[in-house]
């Protein structure tokens, strides 16, 4: 990290010096995220929603820490983090052999958090899990698909 911090400080003196490193960071976040999500089994197993959310949370937290410590929370680098995470969430939802239906997975995760069977979790734990979900949700393009899936799960839960 000290070398990244030093690089950041040196590039700050050059006009548009951060542009290249921000693009490299965004590409790296996207590549790492696609690699981590690609290791998940796309079959809808009972643990896929929590695995996906945990993977995305770990990715976000890792790079958020890097940006805080090495780049002094520069808003342009935070925007690169957001863009990289958006790329990962939306690319894992595209067709292909290892495609994950992100809106369905997030709706299932939310439903699992709010079911009566998860009452062994405290309110603070449920709030924390839903805050993580909101972090991922803001990057998703297919919010309307999530709404439809969640509405179906909510109707089942209410009945």
Radius of gyration: 18 Å
CATH architecture: Up-down Bundle
Helix-strand category: mainly alpha
Count of all domains: 1
What is the third-level CATH name, the topology? 5 helical Cullin repeat like
Global mean pLDDT: 89
Strand content: under 5%
Q: Describe it for me?
A:
With 159 residues, the chain is mostly helical. The protein has one domain (2-158): Up-down Bundle (5 helical Cullin repeat like). The chain is built from 7 helices and no strands. It has helices at 2-12, 18-38, 48-70, 75-91, 102-114, 123-137, 143-158. The longest helix is centred in the middle third of the chain and has 23 residues, at 48-70. It is elongated. The N and C termini lie far apart (53 Å). The model has no long low-confidence stretch (mean pLDDT 89).
Keywords:
73% helix, 5 helical Cullin repeat like, 159 residues, 7 helices, mainly alpha
Which helices and strands appear, and what pairs or packs with what?
Blueprint: H1 2-12, H2 18-38, H3 48-70, H4 75-91, H5 102-114, H6 123-137, H7 143-158
Helix pairs in contact: 2-3, 2-4, 3-4, 3-5, 5-6, 5-7
């Amino acid at each position: 990290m000290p070398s990244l911090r030093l690089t950041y400080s040196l590039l700050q003196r050059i006009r548009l010096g951060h542009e290249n490193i921000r693009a490299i960071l965004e590409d790296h976040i996207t590549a790492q995220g696609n690699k981590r999500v690609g290791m998940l089994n796309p079959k809808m197993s009972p643990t896929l929603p929590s695995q996906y959310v945990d993977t995305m949370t770990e990715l976000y937290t890792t790079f958020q820490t890097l940006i805080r410590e090495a780049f002094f929370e520069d808003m342009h680098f935070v925007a690169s983090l957001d863009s990289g995470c958006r790329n990962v969430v939306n690319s894992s939802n595209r067709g292909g052999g290892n495609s994950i239906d992100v809106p369905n997975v997030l709706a299932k995760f939310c439903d699992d958090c709010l079911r009566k069977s998860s009452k062994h979790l405290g309110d603070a734990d449920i709030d924390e899990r839903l805050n993580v979900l909101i972090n991922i949700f803001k990057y998703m393009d297919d919010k309307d698909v999530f709404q439809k899936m969640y509405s179906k799960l909510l109707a089942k839960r209410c009945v």
